[in-house]
Amino acid sequence: MTDQPSYTGEYIVIKALENGVTIIGLTRGRDTKFHHTEKLDKGEIMVAQFTEHTSAIKLRGKAEVMTRHGSIRNDD
Amino acid sequence: MTDQPSYTGEYIVIKALENGVTIIGLTRGRDTKFHHTEKLDKGEIMVAQFTEHTSAIKLRGKAEVMTRHGSIRNDD
Amino acid sequence: MTDQPSYTGEYIVIKALENGVTIIGLTRGRDTKFHHTEKLDKGEIMVAQFTEHTSAIKLRGKAEVMTRHGSIRNDD
Amino acid sequence: MTDQPSYTGEYIVIKALENGVTIIGLTRGRDTKFHHTEKLDKGEIMVAQFTEHTSAIKLRGKAEVMTRHGSIRNDD
Amino acid sequence: MTDQPSYTGEYIVIKALENGVTIIGLTRGRDTKFHHTEKLDKGEIMVAQFTEHTSAIKLRGKAEVMTRHGSIRNDD
Amino acid sequence: MTDQPSYTGEYIVIKALENGVTIIGLTRGRDTKFHHTEKLDKGEIMVAQFTEHTSAIKLRGKAEVMTRHGSIRNDD
Amino acid sequence: MTDQPSYTGEYIVIKALENGVTIIGLTRGRDTKFHHTEKLDKGEIMVAQFTEHTSAIKLRGKAEVMTRHGSIRNDD
Amino acid sequence: MTDQPSYTGEYIVIKALENGVTIIGLTRGRDTKFHHTEKLDKGEIMVAQFTEHTSAIKLRGKAEVMTRHGSIRNDD
Amino acid sequence: MTDQPSYTGEYIVIKALENGVTIIGLTRGRDTKFHHTEKLDKGEIMVAQFTEHTSAIKLRGKAEVMTRHGSIRNDD
Amino acid sequence: MTDQPSYTGEYIVIKALENGVTIIGLTRGRDTKFHHTEKLDKGEIMVAQFTEHTSAIKLRGKAEVMTRHGSIRNDD
Amino acid sequence: MTDQPSYTGEYIVIKALENGVTIIGLTRGRDTKFHHTEKLDKGEIMVAQFTEHTSAIKLRGKAEVMTRHGSIRNDD
Amino acid sequence: MTDQPSYTGEYIVIKALENGVTIIGLTRGRDTKFHHTEKLDKGEIMVAQFTEHTSAIKLRGKAEVMTRHGSIRNDD
């Protein structure tokens, strides 16, 4: 375990605006692959951190995303 | 125990807007699995930290969520 | 004892708006269980930190909660 | 003694609005018990830190409490 | 002596609004006892830090108190 | 693992405004090469950190980008 | 000498509003005693730090005091 | 690897306002030479960090640049 | 020499509003004595740090003093 | 390599307002000499850090400079 | 050399409003003596840091001084 | 090399408002001597850091200076 542990990592908030929204975690490191996929139905909310294993998050389907740089929607 | 202990981790606040709201903790680490499920009835409030074991929180059912990036509801 | 001791952890403020408000501390760590329950009568106030042993707090009954993300009530 | 000593811990301010206000310190650690009770008469003010031994403070009786999340009264 | 020495601790400011205001320092540690009492006459001002030995301050008599959470008076 | 781990790195948010938006990660280090390409369809959102392996991100196709220096679009 | 030396301690500013204002330094540590007394005549100003030896300052006589929590006068 | 790793370095955002915008990385160190050149076509966006190898970035062609000191355009 | 050297200490600014303004440095440590006296004539300005040897500064004569808590004059 | 590496150094932004703007890096250290000269044509932008080797930057020719202390132009 | 080197010390800015303005550096340490005197003519500007050797700066003659506590002039 | 390297030192910005503006670097340390002189012609801009060798900068000739305490001109 390190001086600044993983539970202090940045997080984003995702709210599904339709069924079947897909949240894909991409692996950190030399290779960037899908390592986890989470499905959200309409109205479900996910709060997800970057982790030792996840350095990018890809989002498919209509959703609202809240981040440190502001909020964004893709249902327009 | 580490220099920045776990009780200083980020937390979010969830207020159930109906019975049966489900809060699911997803495991940190190489595998992302459900490791804990908490049920809230209407009006119940939960304040939950990210921990050494939880790097994502999934929410089913109508709720209001307060985070560092603002508040969001899914009962619209 | 660590470099950043436990008494600097985050805290929340809870004010009971009716008798019998229940504050439940959930255990940190691999298992998330109830480890402490505190009952508040109407008007009683509790100020509680996250600790080495508590990573989530669940609240039953009408109350006002003050947190770093703002205040929330469930008596509406 | 540690790098960040105890006298830098968070504190709250309590002003009794009636006689017999009770401030109860709850123990930090695996067990959460009452470890100290302080009685305030009307108008008395107490400024109290979280400490190595106190991770929660419970308040009975009409009072005004000032915290980092704002002020709250229970005499309404 | 530690990395963050005692003279950087938090302090509060107390102004007596009547003769005989009593400022009581309560001991830090497992036992919470009175360890010092200071008497202020009307208009006297005291600026007091939390210390290695004091984790709570109790105030009797009409006074104005200035803290990091704001100011409060009990002469109303 | 280091004192300030990788999951605390800066991130940007990209929303595709058309199909076929390409996000290209360029390698950190003496040589600056393409090491990963991600395709986004219209409305897809990607949240990506700088990592030990990525020191620059190149974007082709109409998109909105949110960064610490503000937001920018290229569909004008 | 320590990592955060004494000359970075907090200071307050006192302006005497009459002759004979008394500034009393109280000792830090298990015993809280007077260890220094400074007399100010009308208009004299003193800027004083908390130190390894002083954890409280008591003020007698009409004065204006400037602190991190604001300014206060006792000549009302 | 160091205590403050490279992925936390400052970054700038560049949006090409015409075809053929050239971004040139200049080497850090005793000699300041071109070490990398990236071409952007109109509308392409690049987000680039200063790195262990790059201490200056030179830009040719019409572009908008977003930095911590504000935004600047050269198409006027 | 220490991690946080003396030249980063707090400083105050004093402007003499009459001839013969006296600035007295009081010693840090167990004994609080005068260790230096500086005379300012009207209009002279002194910028002085707290140091390893000075923990309090006393000012006689009409002057304007600028501090981190604001400015104060004694020529009223 | 050090705890706070070079890529976190301060940077300035320079936009040439005419052809032949010259940016001159002056050496850090006991001797202050020219060690690098960069020529910018009209509209070219340079973003340059202070480095281990550069402690001053001299600019000849009409340009706009953005710094942490604000922006300045010399074409007036 | 120390962890926080001397070139990060506080500085003040002095602009002479007449010929013959004198800036006097006073020694840090047990003895407070003049160790350097700098003469400024009208309009000359000096930017000076506190250093390992200078803990106070005395100014004679009409000048404008800019500090972290604001600006002050003595030509009134 | 130290934990906080020299390229993070404070810098000021100087714009010459006439030919022959002289920027003089004064040595840090026990002796304060001129160690470098830089001449600026009208419109030339210099951005200069305090360094291990420079603790004061003296400016002759009409110029505009931008610092952390604000901007100042001497051409009035």
Summarize this structure briefly.
12 copies of one chain form a homododecamer. Chain A has about 80 residues and is an all-beta fold.
Question: How does this model look, in words?
Answer:
The structure is a homododecamer of 76-residue chains. By secondary structure, the first copy, chain A, is mostly beta strands. Chain A has a single domain (6-74), classed as Immunoglobulin-like, CATH 2.60.40.50. Chain A is 0% helix and 54% strand. In chain A, the strands form 2 sheets. A 4-stranded antiparallel β-sheet of chain A has the order 4-1-6-7, with no helix packed on it. In chain A, a hairpin with a 6-residue loop joins β2 and β3. Chain A is globular, with a radius of gyration of 13 Å. Chain A starts with 10 loop residues before the first strand and ends with a strand. The model of chain A has no long low-confidence stretch (mean pLDDT 87).
List the helices and strands and how they pair.
Twelve copies of one chain form a homododecamer.
Chain A: E1 11-16, E2 21-27, E3 34-40, E4 45-49, E5 54-60, E6 63-67, E7 70-73
Would you list the SSEs of chain A in sequence order as H and E? EEEEEEE
How many separate structural domains of chain A?
1
Mean pLDDT of chain A: 87
Number of E-type strands of chain A: 7
Key traits:
Immunoglobulin-like; mainly beta; 3-stranded antiparallel sheet; 4-stranded antiparallel sheet; homododecamer; 0% helix
